[in-house]
Amino acid sequence: LDQKMMGEAQIRLDQLTKPQGSLGKLEEIAVKLAGIYGELFPELQNKVHIIMAGDHGVAAEGVSAYPQSVTTQMVHNFLANGAAINALAEGSGAKLKIVDIGMIEDIDSELLVKAKIKAGTENMTKGAAMTREEAIKALEVGIEQAKKAVEEGADIISTGEVGIANTTPSSAVLAVFTGLELNKIVGKGTGLNEEGVKNKIDVIQKAIDYNKPDKEDALDVLASVGGLEIAGMAGVMLGAAAMKKAVVIDGLISAAAALTAYKLCPGVVKYLFPSHRSAEPGHIKIYEELNLEPFIDLQMRLGEGTGAVLALPFFDQAVNIIRDMATFEEAGVSKENE
Amino acid sequence: LDQKMMGEAQIRLDQLTKPQGSLGKLEEIAVKLAGIYGELFPELQNKVHIIMAGDHGVAAEGVSAYPQSVTTQMVHNFLANGAAINALAEGSGAKLKIVDIGMIEDIDSELLVKAKIKAGTENMTKGAAMTREEAIKALEVGIEQAKKAVEEGADIISTGEVGIANTTPSSAVLAVFTGLELNKIVGKGTGLNEEGVKNKIDVIQKAIDYNKPDKEDALDVLASVGGLEIAGMAGVMLGAAAMKKAVVIDGLISAAAALTAYKLCPGVVKYLFPSHRSAEPGHIKIYEELNLEPFIDLQMRLGEGTGAVLALPFFDQAVNIIRDMATFEEAGVSKENE
Lengths: 338, 338
Fold this sequence. Notes:
2 copies of one chain form a homodimer. By secondary structure, chain A is an alpha/beta fold.
């Protein structure tokens, strides 16, 4: 990050007509953006929301309230402009980019980016979700998509996903990296009952016991108990960071991707922004690991990047503050204790 | 509220292509809006942010880090488009309306609504902040401004204020209505140190002891330990509710106004929406009384309505969801456990 520009941003924020620090995290966002873009007032007009779609072999273990076919059905829905993410991205002025990185079915649409690594992961209770090579390829898809988005003009990127059963590998990834107990981090996903959550915990434990991923080897964790869309989103984050653009985390799956990206390359966190706090209990644990704090809490648990796109206007507002406010001197306003 | 329309909104939300309830409070907002406006997809395009400006005699007791003259200076800054609220309201597409309901100084500007009840309240440690009659007049100013805004086209109103020392009367109002201990609700306002907070607590206690407001008589509480802008904001809330428009609460002062409006007329809460959670400890206590939960947390403590205008896009997004999403049937997506 551009430390000099961050210093200038902080100095300017402290001169603006408000008590120092009184805009809280909005000021922190302005400083971080200045560091990322190397300018005091970055223009974040072109917002791109990238959705990674992938299926999960572990769905066979009954860990989701929805049938696996819903992954493909929801991608059709995205392409037909009918999903929550379509409505919310439109409301936040973000362009959608939907990537098939590992759906079981194929969809023949020009609107869909076709980058399938394989038709869904393997059932991780009976082997690795994917090979190490596939995990690397999935990361590369994400990096490539971020790069392409930036080349096409993206100023800021938000991340989302779809993939029936994907809170299961996300919770597994979180559990392996942090060592936290499963009953403290596993939630009901899109709608499991108590019994369903109990089964989900057993399934994750089985997958971890079978694969014994090495937490010091992030690629091993990703390959053995992760997912293709998790890898793709981690790639988007790494790619956006490499292109010096801000990238916004969404819910549990996106946060699991962020944690994976961070384990692969800790510097990525400088380019990552939180958005909402999901209703999934594991979500906030990942933020604690990344030392980031979500600032929206609508008790959402949908995914698709719905929380991330809801947060996009806040980045504009942070820039509006530092760019448009008058200083104490300009406005003739007295300072503290004057 | 239109119960039939709220029922229809809930039915529609449950048919949309997402797990039921997975958009959390965004769905609750959509249902409440349907009830307020009597239509499923209310148009909230015209947003008006009303700022009430007033001074406080209790500032003489050293309860603020800023000199009292800053109230007027900041109103000049609002009028010159230089404050945080200008930048953020612009970013959220809200029109500003600034009302002098009780500044010590006068400002000669056509942009300012002149509705001064008196030139600042009295020092509440030595008597009532205002007479009962003045409190009623200040409420009426707010009601009138809300009515006028709606007549001029406002679809939704957010509330803000400026008035050096005004977290002091706000905390006093909260303490009287709830009986909570002062050390649990009094914060540092715009920048007091520990000693300053201690003094502020002593000052509030002195004001309560001197005036002995009757908590069952909301007008008595407002008049004896409240403020002109608190009364004005409470009036805006009552007026907006009477005109069947949604009205958005900001930080501590705005929340104290909401609590006062609620004590005067409990039904007002049906039209009130929370926005951010302020860094002032008393703020969340008021939300608990009103049974509302803020959904933005940026650790802000500025006032002016900055948190309320940051929340405005969320109301549009709630409408976008219920209006634009496809149903399971339309999209051909399988439901839970199908």
